[in-house]
Design brief:
The protein is of the alpha+beta class and 379 residues long. The chain has 9 helices and 14 strands. The strands form 3 sheets. Strands 1, 4, 5, 6, 7, 8, 9 and 14 form an 8-stranded mixed sheet that branches. The protein is globular. The termini are far apart. It binds (3R)-3-hydroxy-3-methyl-5-(phosphonooxy)pentanoic acid.
């Protein structure tokens, strides 16, 4: 039986309107909510978008387990009504003004879907389990955790809200803050963007992929080699913009659509060679798009290329099914089944650590998605 969100989707009624509040405008009571949301790494990349924050092609990602953001939001009802957004942001318990513009822009986009945003003051405390300097983007996990906190507050106004709707709207809102954040809500593999191979898929929010994956993929590992700490030189927002009028944009969007179908087939059948081929091609194509943009730019570093070459040589000589992927930066994600973990960790220690800034790498693996917490860390 079709229920909740999917009933509307399949009837062709799914649009932004679906996420407008159905209840009379109300001010929530003062309350505190806490969510932990993971980072994710795309296998088929989202690169290029349409207004408002809609993907030019469908993408799919692995949800991580250890790299996550924990956010606590305390809502205080305003005494005097006005239409302004009022919030404080504490990052690692220190007031941080640099997050303010992103959150203000997110609140502005989310206002019509969450009218209570202008009816209170929000105290936002947030912390990442990975270091800020690591070069790992926190926008996906950060926006997902914030969206989930706001949804918990909305649920206090509409207690009959279904679990499906809660998760779909959290993903929808997270997307408004940062596109890839919509894939950090629920499930170990999440697709975002309407695609014929993914039932119930939508450009508006991410959906968990529940195929019966081959056992190879059930406990996949992701070891992130930190080639470059700190902020990248060109933001994702600027990079997405350069896909407008890009000479290869159309072919790239079509390639991603095909890669997504082929990846699902490979993962269902346990075809590791095909999986590796698609994942590495997606990573290199993402960077090829940057290198052929106008203006062109390069985010890979010499160490990135040295690692890629070493991975290819190691795979060829050992037949161990390890592959790499890249985000919009110089760091390298190594993906491999858990059964070869000890061999891969020895390889990293012996050959790859030398290319990592300060010898740093982070061991992560497939996770299940966000969880609500009762206590903020160290409080
Ligand atoms: O979510 P954004 O706007 O930071 O863009 C993310 C783009 C990539 O990380 C490069 C690819 C992806 O699909 O996550």
């Amino acid at each position: 039986m079709l229920c909740g969100v999917w009933k509307y989707y399949l009837c062709g009624m799914m649009s932004e309107q679906f996420f407008l509040p159905k209840y009379e405008p109300k001010v929530p009571s003062s309350q505190t909510v806490i969510w932990s949301a993971p980072s994710n790494i795309a296998l088929v990349k989202y690169w290029g978008k349409k207004p408002v924050q809609l993907p030019a092609n469908a993408s799919v990602s692995f949800t991580l387990s250890n790299c996550k953001t924990i956010t606590e939001v305390t809502f205080f009802a305003k005494k005097l009504k006005d239409d302004k957004h009022s919030f404080d942001v504490l990052v690692d318990d220190v007031s941080n003004e640099s997050f303010r513009p992103k959150i203000e822009s997110f609140f502005t986009k989310a206002q019509e879907y969450l009218p209570f945003l202008s009816s209170g003051h929000f105290q936002i405390r947030t912390t990442n389990t990975f270091p800020h300097s690591s070069g790992i983007a926190s926008s996906a996990s950060g926006m997902a955790a914030l969206a989930l906190c706001l949804m918990s507050i909305e649920k206090s106004l509409d207690p009959t809200m279904s679990e499906d709707f809660f998760l779909a709207k959290a993903s929808f809102l997270a997307r408004l803050g940062s596109g890839s954040a919509c894939r950090s809500i629920k499930g170990s593999m999440v697709a975002w963007g309407s695609h014929p191979a993914v039932s119930n898929s939508s450009d508006l929010f991410g959906v968990p992929l529940r195929q019966p994956w081959h056992e190879f993929f059930l406990n996949y590992q992701d070891t992130i080699l930190i080639v470059e700490e700190g902020q990248k030189q060109v933001s994702s927002t600027a990079g997405h913009d350069l896909m407008h009028n890009h000479p290869f944009a159309q072919q790239r969007f079509e390639q991603a659509e095909t890669n997504l179908s082929d990846l699902i087939t490979a993962m269902t059948q346990g075809d590791l060679d095909e999986f590796i081929g698609i994942v590495e091609s997606e990573a290199l194509t993402l960077h090829a798009m940057m290198m052929t943009s106008n203006p062109a730019y390069v985010l890979m570093q010499p160490a990135t290329l040295s690692i890629i070459t070493a991975v290819w040589n190691f795979r060829k000589s050992t037949q161990i099914p390890i592959c790499f992927t890249l985000d919009a930066g110089a760091n390298v994600h190594l993906l491999y089944p858990k059964s070869v973990k000890s061999e891969v960790l020895s390889f990293i220690e012996q050959e790859l650590v030398a290319y990592c800034q300060n010898g740093r790498y982070i061991c992560d693996e497939l996770g299940e998605g966000s969880i609500q917490l009762n206590v903020y860390p160290n409080s």
